[in-house]
Amino acid sequence: MTKQNVSLSVIRRMPRYYRFLEALKDSGIVRISSKELAARMGLTASQIRQDFNCFGGFGQQGYGYNVPELYEAIGKIIGINAPKGVILLGLGNLGQTIAANINFPSMGFELLGIFDISAEKTGRRFAGVGVYHTDELAEFCRKYSPEAAFLCLPSEVAPRTLDELVALGINSFWNFSHCDLTVSHPGIVAENVHLGDSLMTLRFRMG
Amino acid sequence: MTKQNVSLSVIRRMPRYYRFLEALKDSGIVRISSKELAARMGLTASQIRQDFNCFGGFGQQGYGYNVPELYEAIGKIIGINAPKGVILLGLGNLGQTIAANINFPSMGFELLGIFDISAEKTGRRFAGVGVYHTDELAEFCRKYSPEAAFLCLPSEVAPRTLDELVALGINSFWNFSHCDLTVSHPGIVAENVHLGDSLMTLRFRMG
DNA sequence: TAGATTGTTAATCGATTAACAATC
DNA sequence: TAGATTGTTAATCGATTAACAATC
Description:
Two copies of one chain form a homodimer.
Chain A: H1 8-26, E1 31-32, H2 34-41, H3 45-52, E2 59-60, E3 64-66, H4 67-78, E4 84-89, H5 93-101, E5 109-116, E6 125-126, E7 129-133, H6 137-144, E8 148-151, H7 158-167, E9 172-175, H8 181-184, E10 189-192, H9 195-205
Parallel strand pairs in A: 4-5, 4-8, 5-7, 8-9, 9-10
Antiparallel strand pairs in A: 1-3, 2-3, 6-7
Helix pairs in contact in A: 1-4, 2-3
The first copy, chain A, binds a DNA duplex (24 and 24 nucleotides) through residues 7, 9-10, 33-35, 44-47, 49-50, 52-53, 57, 59-65.
């Protein structure tokens, strides 16, 4: 089964496996069975074995899985070891938090630059990269060819900016604005983070 | 079908319906069919009707759905109109962004107070509420009975803080730290926002 | 070797989609 | 009334779980 055929349900579990395996590795655990991992993660052993076997056999009968090896393998499956160049748009409150707090290299990205429309914010450096005015976007993209963009923009300007970025050859988006990018643009990859949806889900579940 | 029986898949779609209906309402659209809404949202008309009918019949044969009425109805289903008291823990970069940027009342919450361990941050006001030292947590909870907590804490202290909060009668959590709260504590409601998982999913999907 | 645990196939379960009678 | 569209039941599809032979 190739990467393309793996269902989104499985894909979305991979980072969680990666996270748990990192914790196991850090606590010095070398070997784990699907049964034990299932108990720790609140899954079934069957599901774990099915998930891993979408990408190949990482275990050994009678033994289980080697934690550091599996961790490494999942990292490679996700693409951690092959970072993609990315730009961040919108250095407001949220953009600053994302840029300052997320460890991009450990998630398969390299932050190349930050863009904002405010003259006060541009011209300096933030989170180790330059902050540029949005006017310089096209030139920057030609020069550094970022493959992804993190959209920390107000919802009003997000769709317009998206069109611009797609025209500049960027087709992968991490979107924090209140619109669903996938709907309008087929062919692009977008992860929409809707904090409001998550919060309303919590509210509903409280009864 | 009561709220309890509705599957999580359906529940998680409700805030998205709410968002789209708000946009429709704001643009003055009064009537919409499941077919038209499906086209706009990238769903099937069947699914939309199934989803809404988990909570009762909001439509009218031959007509469709009245947008403002449906918007109002979904808001009530989520619980927007009955806000729950909440405290926010951890006024770091992320905590500040959440407190300052999220419109809590429009999502069914009322922010009662913010807690932090740093003396520099406590004693002042932020996002319209007081910032208190974590030492005052127990007293505050007895006095104001918050029902939920937003955890913007470092992962190291999150599980410990959770135990404390559960003991103080809080059982609903919006969690931004790198741990999965549901695993350790059954009976509590937790929405874990794993930005890292979302970002790694994007990385995987980029190939 | 015997015990354990994987990889994988088959069975079950739940969610989505299709169909259509009811009815506005 | 005729056309449209819902609410709801039945069919399909996909994802999860169970089972077990392979094998370390």
